Amino acid sequence: QVQLVESGGGLVQAGGSLRLSCAASGSTSSIFTMAWYRQAPGKERELAANINSGTPYYANSVKGRFTISRDNDKNTVYLQMNSLKPEDTAVYYCNAVTLRSYGPRNYWGQGTQVTVSS
User: Fold this and answer.
1) pLDDT at 91 over 80
2) Calpha distance 10→37 (Å, rounded)
3) Backbone phi, then psi, for 67, in 5-degree steps?
4) Taking a C-beta distance cutoff of 8 angstroms, is the pair 49, 37 a contact?
5) Over the chain, what is the mean pLDDT?
6) CB-based contacts of 63: which residues, under 8 Å, 6+ apart?
7) Which of 20, 29, 68, 97 has its CA 20 to 30 A from that of 57?
8) Position 73 confidence tier, pLDDT thresholds 50, 70, 90
9) What are the beta bridge partners of residue 70?
10) Are strands 31-39 and 90-100 parallel, antiparallel or unpaired?
11) Residues 71/73/74/80 CA torsion (nearest 10 deg)
C-alpha cells in the first residue's frame, strides 16, 4: 500500500503563489500516476493536474497557471500554483495510482486547504 501526505496549503492573496508537496511512502515503486485533485465547498472533487510517463495534464481552469512535477527519487509530487484566484479555493488532495498484478488501485492523501482571498 501507499501512504500520501500533503503539505504547503495555506492562505494567500489573489495573484499570489503556493507550492504544494505530496510525499509518498510504502510501495512507491508500484506508483504509475500521481495527480492533484481539488474539491471546493459544495462541489464535486475534480482533477486539477496529473502526471505519469507522458505529457502532464491540466484542467482548463488551471492551465497556464499551475505546474505539476514529480521527483521519483524522493517519491514526491509538487503542484506549483501561480496567479491564484479566489475560485482556486479548495481542499487539494494528492492521488496516486499503482499498477500491480491485482490491477490498478487508487490512494489518497488527507487533503490540504488552499484559501485565496480577494
Assistant:
1) yes
2) 16
3) -135, 125
4) no
5) 95
6) none
7) 29
8) confident
9) 77
10) antiparallel
11) -10
